[in-house]
Specification:
With 338 residues, this protein is of the alpha/beta class. It has eleven helices and 13 strands.
């Protein structure tokens, strides 16, 4: 599909964390963007003031809503999902309903529309599980460690199969851990910043020896928008990540330095996941080859921007569920004690 100023793109989850930056970058390319978002975590203010953007409040599991929004559209970038891993432990059916069946609904309605020319499906590096070999390329085995990751992998497989069955131009993008402004979930970096902001440097965390490949959100969004207009990417699964992994305790140290605090980490056993991923690090050579993509924002600079944004804007997390599983563990312990 060629990049033209009149390209009409639907971005599901386009008011969310990554989605809001994808929406902005598409607008900067001259596209007309329709955002489909149920606003369970996305925020209208993240896309407010952007020209050529219309927001439709709707759910990706609603067949009529999806069918209506796809009328006469040229492309779909599918980001909408339930993304917070700890919630998936307690609401597995909901995660499969949204991340698996919701994805099937969107891609099938796109195929049926006979107007959509390109479908970009946003997956997750979590589908790989913990690294077996380093760096992790697209041929790395998929051994998901959470219900969230399994629900995302099921969506991936459905999208790829339907691409084959219907010769429907599709690209699967697997971002590694994204961070930056417009965050909508209590992921580890905003959690660290929030705790440091509220204390003299004391933070309670779980597994601080696990490592992740943190990639700044604008870089992830750029990879996604590039995939939309690269015919060479059709039928491919493509990783987006920095190629550098960092341990969580190192992130604490970097953020504390930016905030001018002396960090002291307390290990909180209630925060440790029972089947955690030990290490994720991206092989982004395929993205470089097919998309001409490389991350531009270094980790230290990205963390500085993230800290500044959170201190300026503040963060509130509006999720459809209760959030961090300590809520449930505390409630369970109270029942046991009673």
């Amino acid at each position: 599909m060629k990049e033209t100023p009149e390209t009409r793109v639907v971005v599901t989850g386009g008011a969310g964390f990554i989605g809001s930056f994808v929406t902005k970058q598409l607008v900067e390319k001259g596209c007309h963007v329709t955002v489909l978002d149920n606003l369970s975590s996305g925020k209208p203010e993240y896309i407010a003031g952007l020209d050529r953007v219309s927001l439709v409040k709707g759910d990706i599991c609603d067949e009529k809503a999806v069918q209506e929004v796809l009328k006469d559209k040229d492309a779909v970038v599918h980001l909408a999902a339930l993304p917070f891993i700890p919630d998936s432990y307690y609401f597995p059916e909901e995660f499969f309903r949204v991340n698996s069946m919701g994805t099937v609904n969107v891609v099938w309605k796109a195929i049926q529309s006979e107007a959509v020319e390109k479908f970009i499906h946003i997956s997750s590096s979590e589908v790989y599980g913990s690294a077996i070999h380093i760096p992790m390329n697209e041929d790395h085995p998929t051994l998901p460690h959470s219900t969230y990751a399994v629900s995302k992998l099921a969506g991936d497989r459905a999208v790829f199969t339907m691409y084959k069955e219907h010769s429907f131009p599709t690209v699967i993008i697997r971002p590694f851990n994204s961070y930056g402004p417009n965050i909508t979930q209590p992921y580890i970096i905003p959690e660290i910043i929030s705790q440091l902001q509220a204390t003299d440097g004391h933070v309670k965390l779980g597994n601080t020896d696990s490592s992740r490949d943190f990639t700044y959100v604008t870089d992830i969004a750029e990879g996604i928008t590039l995939a939309l207009f690269k015919d060479e990417a059709v039928g491919e699964t493509i990783n987006l990540g920095s190629g550098r992994d960092v341990k969580i305790r190192e992130i604490v140290s970097l953020v504390a330095d930016i905030m001018g605090k002396n960090a002291e980490i307390e290990r909180d056993l209630s925060r440790i996941r029972s089947y955690d991923v030990a290490r994720l690090v991206c092989d982004n050579s395929k993205a470089q080859r097919l998309l001409g993509w490389k991350p531009k924002v270094a980790l230290e600079e990205g963390l500085r921007r993230t800290v500044e944004w959170i201190l300026r804007a503040g963060i509130t997390f509006k999720t459809p569920f209760k959030g961090w599983p300590r809520t449930y563990r505390e409630a369970r312990n109270q029942l046991v004690q009673a």
